[in-house]
Amino acid sequence: MEINIEIKVAKTFFSKFLGFMFKKDANYALLFKNCKSIHTFFMRFNLDIIFLDKENKVVKIVKNIRPFRIILPVKNSFSILEIPSNIAELKDIMISDILLINEISKNQIKR
């Protein structure tokens, strides 16, 4: 199965800190490497979160997280993929699936 979503990598401290905060909407996902938990403070839309281990294996999925929530650390997670809830249907992604993420340097977020 293939889901085509543009993924931007949050690499700098500032881009990781801001994430989707204060944005009215987004049509892409954000990848946070070396990250085990998130918050949705100051966000304006719901998120679907996929927690991945070092091999991009799905260890947990949390759907439709509303703004101003905290998601606690997830055991064995290494990175987090944040996806605006309205841009993709994740019903076919399951725990233990391995996601193939193509990173392209132009998709890196710099703020």
Number of strands: 8
Walk across the major sheet and give the strand order. 5-4-7-2-1-8
| Dominant shape | globular
Oligomer: single chain
The main sheet comes to: 6 strands, mixed
Strand residues, percent: 25-35%
Spans of at least 5 consecutive residues whose pLDDT stays below 50 are: 105-111
Number of helices: 1
Q: Work out the radius of gyration.
A: 13 Å
Query: What is the SS-derived class?
Result: mainly beta
Question: Which percent bin holds the helix content?
Answer: under 10%
Question: How many angstroms does the end-to-end distance come to?
Answer: 33 Å
Q: Can you write the helix and strand succession as a string?
A: EHEEEEEEE
The pLDDT mean sits at 86
How does this structure look, described?
The chain is mainly beta and 111 residues long. Helix content is 5%, strand content 32%. The protein has 1 helix and 8 strands, in the order βαβββββββ. The protein has one helix at 13-18; strands spanning 7-10, 29-33, 38-39, 47-52, 58-65, 70-71, 79-84, 108-109. The strands form 2 sheets. The protein has a 6-stranded mixed sheet with strand order 5-4-7-2-1-8. The radius of gyration is 13 Å and the shape is globular. The termini are far apart.
